[in-house]
């Protein structure tokens, strides 16, 4: 349904509405994809992780979506991934993390779908996923920055590569 912009609003709304773990969903296309030189983004989000009322928004964050990392990185790399938590999204009161997936048409990146999840909720899910009693799970982004870790002092301060165990040399 890439040729039907109205369907992008429907998909965004339904993704959020049908999954209680999702706080928001943005589907954004490169400028001019639907109309010459025009930006297009379909974005629905919950008021909060505690209020499931859905809101349709014209903006995502404090700058144009084409300038934001959740959009730019998958468009440039063609790879999906987790983005570091954001706190500057209108109407969102707690930090959120976004999983971004490029949208391709004829092997060309034409847009991005971003799914927002509450960092608190994601932390509960990841940290509760123990393979054994004495194990723990972590989540980090593509650069190795910790997004979820049982030692909160490591969050957004360290990467998996900056830990002593992984350093080489003096």
Topology summary:
Layout (H helix, E strand, L loop, with lengths): L4 H14 L3 E8 L10 E7 L7 E4 L11 H9 L3 E6 L9 E10 L2 E11 H9 L11 E2 L5 E3 L22
Structural summary, described in words:
The protein is built from three helices and eight strands; from the N terminus they run H-E-E-E-H-E-E-E-H-E-E. The chain has helices at 5-18, 69-77, 119-127; strands spanning 22-29, 40-46, 54-57, 81-86, 96-105, 108-118, 139-140, 146-148. The strands form two sheets. The protein has a six-stranded antiparallel beta sheet, sandwiched between helices. A two-stranded antiparallel sheet has the order 7-8. The longest helix is centred in the first third of the chain and has 14 residues, at 5-18.
Outline type: globular
Could you report the average pLDDT, rounded to the nearest whole number?
82
Unreliable stretches: none
Biggest pleated sheet: 6 strands, antiparallel
Tell me the fraction of residues in β-strands, as a range. 25-35%
Query: What sequence of helices (H) and strands (E) makes up the elements?
Result: HEEEHEEEHEE
How far is the first residue's CA from the last residue's CA? 56 Å
Number of helices: 3
Q: Order of strands side by side in the largest beta sheet? A: 3-2-1-6-5-4
Helicity level = 10-25%
Strand elements, count: 8
Structural class by SSE content: alpha+beta
Rg: 17 Å
């Amino acid at each position: 349904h890439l040729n039907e912009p109205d369907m992008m609003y429907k998909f965004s709304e339904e993704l959020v509405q049908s999954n209680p773990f999702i706080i928001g969903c943005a589907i954004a296309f490169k400028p001019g994809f639907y109309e010459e030189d025009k930006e297009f983004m379909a974005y629905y989000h919950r008021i909060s992780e505690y209020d499931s009322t859905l809101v349709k928004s014209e903006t995502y964050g404090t700058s144009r979506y084409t300038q934001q990392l959740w959009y730019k990185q998958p468009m440039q790399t063609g790879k999906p991934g987790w983005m570091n938590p954001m706190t500057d999204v209108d109407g969102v009161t707690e930090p959120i993390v976004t999983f971004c997936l490029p949208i391709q048409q004829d092997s060309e990146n034409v847009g991005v779908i971003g799914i927002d999840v509450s960092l608190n909720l994601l932390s509960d899910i990841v940290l509760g996923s123990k393979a054994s009693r004495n194990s723990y799970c972590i989540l980090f982004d593509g650069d190795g920055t910790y997004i979820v870790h049982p030692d909160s002092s490591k969050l957004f301060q360290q990467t998996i590569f900056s830990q002593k165990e992984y350093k080489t040399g003096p």
